[in-house]
Amino acid sequence: MNTLIIKKFQLGLAAMFAALLMFTSCSQQPKTGDNEEAKSEKPKAAPEGVTLTQSQLDAVGIRLGSIEQKNLKSVVKASGQLEVPPQNKAEVTLLMGGVVNQVFVLEGQHVSKGQKLATIENNQLIQLQQDYMAALSSLSYAAKEYERQRELNEANAGTGKIYQQSQTALQNEQAKVSALSRQLRQVGVSPESAAHGRFITQIPVYAPISGTIGKIVIQTGSYAEPARPLMNIIDNSKVHCDLVVYEKDLFKVKAGQQVSFILTNQNNREITGKIYGVNQSFENESKAIIAHAVIEQAAKNNLIQGMYVSALIDVGKQEATAVPTEAVIKTGGKEYIYYLVRVAERSGAKEKSETDEEDTSGKSYVFEKAEVVTGVSDLGYTEIRLVKALPKDIKIVTKGAFYILSSENATGDEEE
Questions:
Q1: In this structure, is residue 153 part of a structural domain?
Q2: Structure confidence by residue, pLDDT tens digits, 373-415
Q3: Please, which of 168, 282, 341, 409 could form a disulfide with 366 given CB 3.0 to 4.6 Å?
Q4: Does the keyword Signal apply (predicted)?
Q5: Based on the domain organization, do 283 and 209 belong to the same domain?
Q6: Are 323 and 381 in contact (CB under 8 A)?
Q7: Cβ atoms within 10 A of the Cβ of 45, count?
Q8: Strand boundaries in 269-414, DSSP class E
């Protein structure tokens, strides 16, 4: 009896354990709806490149070619600003101060060298002219005394000491007259006029160079102090350019090289010039030197000191990896070229990795773009550097690349 009860109990436990396993297995299986939803959420593979038919290539004139090695003009990019040599700019100052009596020029006016700019009233000028007249009288007396003592000395009627004293006095008076004459000329007074008693009280101020009047800091009735600028004059016809050249390009830049300037503040107007000198010391701690370039026909270009420019210095020719300029397209702030990935049968049953020349209308062409960094442009070609390497014999789009870019953008809009 007990044995029968025990067997029934064991059978009951086995049944319960089997039911528990079945429930656990069912709970772990995903629902059919979940599987379908998960499958539908898998990302779609992005389309590879841009596919065009032979008729499309013919219609827009797309041409294929190769990346070439070209002997292109090599340039060094530099920037700087226009400067005027020190001999072509001047500050007008006085050796003797005074009250401004009259100003004859305006700011921005062109003046010639020696033109009268202003007059300064100074009473000390009268004293200087009086001293000059007195010195002339003393010189005349000293000259006569010297002649008298010379004649006596030659006749052995005088003493050698007095003769030497008269000679020294004459030399002193000559030096004094010469010094006062120079002082008068420095302040713009004619010594000849002062010698005849025609005294003036106004100091004339003359232009030291030809050029354009800059800032005028005086006015009628103001006091002009000695050695302080009254106005400045600048001759922009001799303007040149100081270009900043960095250490990596230092040994490429030499005197005599041609330069093309771009005036950034004048609608990118281009002018030309030539390097005439290169400094041999670095500017402060910048590890850069200054290259000086003369500008051709600077007077006719209306150039002003301080204008900023960008420049390309022609340093010769060098062999470079290049493609036709039309092959490079810009998008998204980067530059690209398109290359041919493969030629495929339009039916899709057969694909080729070679770029056969004997294309038929039954083929389609798959293109992808490669990012490049461009350099100089010359003779219709542009220097490039591939960001990622491509096979040497790869075919690139040399004409019509912009159409492929438009097709790619249109395809992207449709997918969105």
A1: yes
A2: 988 777 788 888 889 888 888 999 999 888 888 888 776 555 5
A3: 341
A4: yes
A5: no
A6: yes
A7: 6
A8: 269-278, 288-295, 308-324, 329-331, 334-345, 351-352, 363-378, 381-386, 395-399
Do residues 109 and 206 share a domain?
Answer: yes
What percent of the residues of the chain are helix, what percent strand, and what percent coil, each to the nearest 5?
Answer: 35, 35, 30
Give me the half-sphere count of Cα atoms (radius 13 Å) on the Cβ side of residue 401. 25
Do 91 and 232 touch, CB atoms closer than 8 A? Answer: yes
Flag whether pLDDT at 355 surpasses 80: no
Burial (CB < 10 A; 0-12, 13-18, 19+), residue 356, is exposed
CB 339 within 8 A of CB 368: yes
Q: How many helices (H) and strands (E) does the chain have?
A: 7, 22
pLDDT at position 11 is: 53
Beta bridge partners of 273: 259, 295
Structure token pair of residue 14: 């086995």
Q: Is residue 3 part of a domain?
A: no
At 219, phi and psi to the nearest 5? -150, 165
d(CA 374, CA 367): 21
Summarised one tens digit per residue, pLDDT across range 263-292 is 766 676 778 889 999 988 887 777 888 999
State the CB neighbour count (10 A cutoff) for residue 82: 21
Q: What is the DSSP string of 53-85?
A: EHHHHHHHT-EEEE-EEEEEEEEEEEEEEEE--
In terms of residue numbers, what domain contains 103? Answer: 96-122+201-234
Quickly tell me which residue has 């305006």 as its tokens: 106
Note whether residue 30 is domain-resident.
no
The tokens for 214 are 């800059």
CA-based nearest residue to 262, from 82, 25, 87, 94: 82
Please give the single-letter amino acid code of residue 7: K
How far apart, in Å, do the first and last CA atoms of the chain sit?
79
Chain center to CA of 200: 52
Inside any domain, residue 362: yes
Provide the token pair at 8.
Answer: 């029934």
Give the CATH number, domain containing residue 210: 2.40.50.100
Same-domain check for residues 294 and 395 = no
In the chain, the amino acid numbered 300 is K
CA-based R_g, the chain, Å: 46
Q: In this structure, what token pair is assigned to residue 56?
A: 């499309």
Q: Which residues contact 397 (CB under 8 A, 6 or more apart)?
A: 62, 63, 64, 327, 337, 338, 339, 340, 367, 404
